[in-house]
């Protein structure tokens, strides 16, 4: 085959219509009306549009070895599988993040992500303290009443208020934060301190950690636990509002209770009585006991940010006496005081011979103005603050005798009654 650059006309005429064996063209070329078999072959190159460069047509080599279809099919299959998996994954992610469930329904809210470690409830946070203390708090159910308490030993001893278990009978029971219940019986009561101990018919309990109520300060954060208005497993927060607040409480015809209370603004209501007041370390520092309210009756009383707790040092001492002996010792100064008068202190009506006050040189008519640094306004303040200390404690006092002021040290004693 030639491109015509050195073409020569063949010699000798060919018969019309007969194929020329020397012709490079197809056998029916003589019958092609548009083709002169004797015209030289030429390559025609058309004019390319301006700016475009013609590209030669690639002609496959007929002698090149052919590739099998197996590798191609394998590549196609792998590509299809990868594309399908990737597409399904992206579709699920976009559907979830876009707020739609994969079944076509609407998903409310974004998908929850794992909580970062920095946001988890650490033991020292209020949430961590609540989680740790709640299993030790109980709801005390007495016929016609409900109160709170907290476990202080693995074998079932529980501290609560005396007024919670007053009138209790065989129907008394307690409920735990997990919903389980158990029967309980009264071990002992001390109406004047408003502390009682009951024993739960269940062992292996988790006791609370007891703190030091003498180590707290005004402004310290606190949590109050209990069942206010029968709402079990309630936790409220606040701060220590005041310390050694003298409290005189009690019902008509019943015992009068005196104690130097921890005042808090944590929300406390009926049903919180007997529950623990806990510091930021998860240690019990007080027993929630009474509230101050503007309500006219007990049924109308409600939280106004004035709640009072018995210091745990006093409650622990009384509870230990009850567990050991069945009866609590009462701390006394050995003198009778005048109450209900404004004398700028606690006036001694009488002094017991050989009692603590007499041994310290105090006499009838003396007006005590301070005890252990606490200012006394009247006789009630003296009774409440004396009950704070354990029998045998020695406390400094300041007093006024006539126009003269003096001081003394008094070693308090336990009541012999």
From TrEMBL:
Q: Which GO terms describe its biological process?
A: proteolysis
Q: Which residues form a coiled coil?
A: none
Renumbered residue ranges of the record's region Disordered:
1-41
The UniProt record lists the PDZ domain at 322-378
Q: Which UniProt keywords apply?
A: Hydrolase, Membrane, Protease, Transmembrane, Transmembrane helix
- In terms of superkingdom, the source organism counts as Bacteria
Mind telling me which residue stretches traverse the membrane in this protein?
72-96
Question: By what name is this protein known?
Answer: Putative trypsin-like serine protease
The record ties this protein, via SUPFAM superfamilies, to:
PDZ domain-like, Trypsin-like serine proteases
Q: Which family does it belong to?
A: Belongs to the peptidase S1C family.
What Pfam families is this protein classified in? PDZ_2, Trypsin_2
Which organism was this protein described from? Actinoplanes missouriensis (strain ATCC 14538 / DSM 43046 / CBS 188.64 / JCM 3121 / NBRC 102363 / NCIMB 12654 / NRRL B-3342 / UNCC 431)
GO terms of molecular function: serine-type endopeptidase activity
